[in-house]
């Protein structure tokens, strides 16, 4: 599929649920509640995946909320992997309970995982996630190593919270063959609208002049990657606010309640549920994709109508 700018959009990010077992401070407010009643069923996901694959989708990432709260997650992975056109299936997770389910997920077709990990200090991790257990993350990482699955760590930096841990995270990339990706704070909560809490990627590079840019794994990936001599892994900078990467975007998003969203930072959505059993479903998707916006709205005092867990990480 191509949009009006000629971008090849073959990467589908599927939010399986807005439910999550954590309430990270940059994702949603502490008193927010998530509902499961509007979630797409396995059958509905299957119908939509058939159409997306026919339209050219070759890469899928499963997100949430937290995908692990779906009891049918293994079935969803197996269904997605059943399409020979799908070359890569990955998942973003907070890893709470990942270790026990990862062997079955890997066997079903999951190939890579991104783990959200915003602190290496147990107390700070618990505070930033509002209840997370850091030991569960380590168990998940160990399980991934046993399964020989590539791991990326996603670190949302919040000034005054975890920015003093940047050096510790970079040390992980030096010692282990993992990618540690620092993500700029985005406006999906009250905290995310505060510029004074945002840590731009350039600040990290100024503090670590030993880091030098390296070729990306994928030219359309959102992170700019860096290494230094002796590094086993990489340091990635994802800077949607200070360094837009919209021109190379290859992603579209499906929310857990059946909305097709072209951009994380643009609130326009197309409801696919009314078209689920209509032969025009493929054309509805094509039309939405064609009108993908040129870029996100983060630089224009944007505050998302949905929280991050409702859109999909």
Description of the molecule:
- The chain has 313 residues and is an alpha/beta fold.
- It is built from 9 helices and 12 strands.
- It has helices at 42-54, 73-81, 98-108, 122-129, 134-146, 166-175, 201-207, 281-290, 308-311; strands at residues 11-15, 59-63, 88-93, 112-116, 151-156, 179-183, 212-213, 224-227, 234-238, 251-254, 259-261, 269-271.
- It has a 12-stranded mixed sheet with strand order 7-8-9-6-5-4-3-2-1-10-11-12.
- Helix 2 runs parallel beside helix 3 (98-108).
- The longest helix is centred in the first third of the chain and has 13 residues, at 42-54.
- The radius of gyration is 19 Å and the shape is globular.
- The mean pLDDT is 91.
Shape: globular
Give the SSE string.
Answer: EHEHEHEHHEHEHEEEEEEHH
The number of helices is 9
State the oligomer.
single chain
| Low-confidence region ranges | none
The helical percent reads 25-40%
Q: N-to-C terminal Cα separation, in Å?
A: 22 Å
Main β-sheet description: 12 strands, mixed
Mean pLDDT: 91
How many extended strands? 12
Strand content: 15-25%
The secondary structure category is: alpha/beta
Strand order of the largest sheet: 7-8-9-6-5-4-3-2-1-10-11-12
Task: Report Rg.
Answer: 19 Å
């Amino acid at each position: 599929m191509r949009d009006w700018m000629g971008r090849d959009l073959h990467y589908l990010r599927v939010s399986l649920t807005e439910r999550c077992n954590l309430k990270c401070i940059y994702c949603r407010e502490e008193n927010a509640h998530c509902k499961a009643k509007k979630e797409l069923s396995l059958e509905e996901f299957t119908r939509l995946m058939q159409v997306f694959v026919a339209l050219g989708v070759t890469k899928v990432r499963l997100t949430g909320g937290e995908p692990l709260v779906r009891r049918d997650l293994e079935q969803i992975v197996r269904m997605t992997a059943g399409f020979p056109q799908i070359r890569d299936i990955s998942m973003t997770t907070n890893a709470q309970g990942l270790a026990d389910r990862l062997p079955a997920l890997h066997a079903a077709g999951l190939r890579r995982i991104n783990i959200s990990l915003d602190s290496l200090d147990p107390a700070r991790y618990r505070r930033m996630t509002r209840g997370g257990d850091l030991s569960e993350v380590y168990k998940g990482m160990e399980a991934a190593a046993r399964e020989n699955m590539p791991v990326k760590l996603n670190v949302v930096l919040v000034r005054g919270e975890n920015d003093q841990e940047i050096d510790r995270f970079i040390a992980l990339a030096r010692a282990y063959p993992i990618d540690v990706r620092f993500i700029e704070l985005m406006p999906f909560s009250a905290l995310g609208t505060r510029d004074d809490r945002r840590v731009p990627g350039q600040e990290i590079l100024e503090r670590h002049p030993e880091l030098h840019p390296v070729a990306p794994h994928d030219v359309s990936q959102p992170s700019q990657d860096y290494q230094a001599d002796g590094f086993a892994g990489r340091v990635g900078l994802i800077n949607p606010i200070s360094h837009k990467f919209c021109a190379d975007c290859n992603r579209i998003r499906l929310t857990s309640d059946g909305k097709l969203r072209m951009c994380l930072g643009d609130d326009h959505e197309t409801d696919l549920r009314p078209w689920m059993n209509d032969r025009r479903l493929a054309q509805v998707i094509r039309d939405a994709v064609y009108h993908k916006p040129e870029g996100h709205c983060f630089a224009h005092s944007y505050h998302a109508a949905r929280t991050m867990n409702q859109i999909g990480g």
